[in-house]
């Protein structure tokens, strides 16, 4: 089996996930890049710190990218995230018109891309990004497992 290097933006998302975990948040990080791969914005889970249930890493990164570009549309952009997005985040990805989503670990409980509602496969979904899953999965999964094991 061939091993491919992680895209730099996904490496950054995994590092942000680790920072979130150190801050007591569920370890999830996200990075938005432009079509050339330049980082536009990033985010990590901040729900507890911000007392905001919508402050998922993806939402934080998407908001920051929209502000940086001055547009609610992130056409040509890519989102790299350490964990499969939930339904809320998948909806934001579709509304932002993000071209490509790359996530590391699947989330069988809360994910909405390959699991649960399979948001982008729904006929009512008005935009479907290209999706790539799996790079960095072992690292992301281990980080999540260790985080939750320490709290049980």
General description of the model:
This protein has 152 residues and is α/β, with parallel strands linked by helices. 36% of the residues lie in helices and 18% in strands. It has 5 helices and 5 strands.
Keywords:
single chain; 152 residues; alpha/beta; 5-stranded mixed beta sheet; 5 helices; globular
List the helices and strands and how they pair.
Blueprint: H1 8-22, E1 29-33, E2 39-44, H2 47-50, H3 57-69, E3 78-83, H4 87-96, E4 100-105, E5 130-133, H5 137-149
Parallel strand pairs: 3-4, 4-5
Antiparallel strand pairs: 1-2, 1-3
Helix pairs in contact: 1-5, 3-4
Order of helices and strands: HEEHHEHEEH
What separation lies between the terminal Cα atoms? 35 Å
Number of distinct helices: 5
Describe the biggest sheet?
Answer: 5 strands, mixed
State Rg.
Answer: 14 Å
Please tell me the overall pLDDT.
96
The low-confidence runs, each spanning 5 or more residues with pLDDT under 50, are: none
The total strand number stands at: 5
Gross morphology is: globular
Strand content bin: 15-25%
Strand arrangement across the biggest beta sheet: 2-1-3-4-5
Structural class: alpha/beta
